[in-house]
Write a structure and sequence with these properties.
This protein is an alpha+beta fold. About 35% of the residues lie in helices and about 25% in strands. It has one domain. It is built from three helices and five strands.
Length: about 70
């Protein structure tokens, strides 16, 4: 699974699915309360740590991936 985030703290994964999002969050140690309908937000205090494990993409790319499902 590949983790993708943007500069606005939005976090998704590829392949994209809601079950995969929850698996990703568990692997990264992100609480379920950071889930927002179709993505996770990265907690501010953990952005640097989590971003190092992700590919940085544009917000538009994240929106495109999410809308395709």
């Amino acid at each position: 699974m590949i983790y993708l985030c943007d500069t606005k703290r939005h976090l998704i994964c590829a392949p994209y699915s809601i079950p995969n999002l929850h698996i990703m969050a568990q692997e990264l140690g992100i609480n379920r309360c950071w889930f927002h309908k179709d993505h996770y937000d990265v907690p501010k205090r953990r952005i640097f740590e989590v971003a190092q494990k992700c590919q940085l993409v544009s917000s538009k790319t994240i929106a495109t991936i999410v809308r395709k499902k």
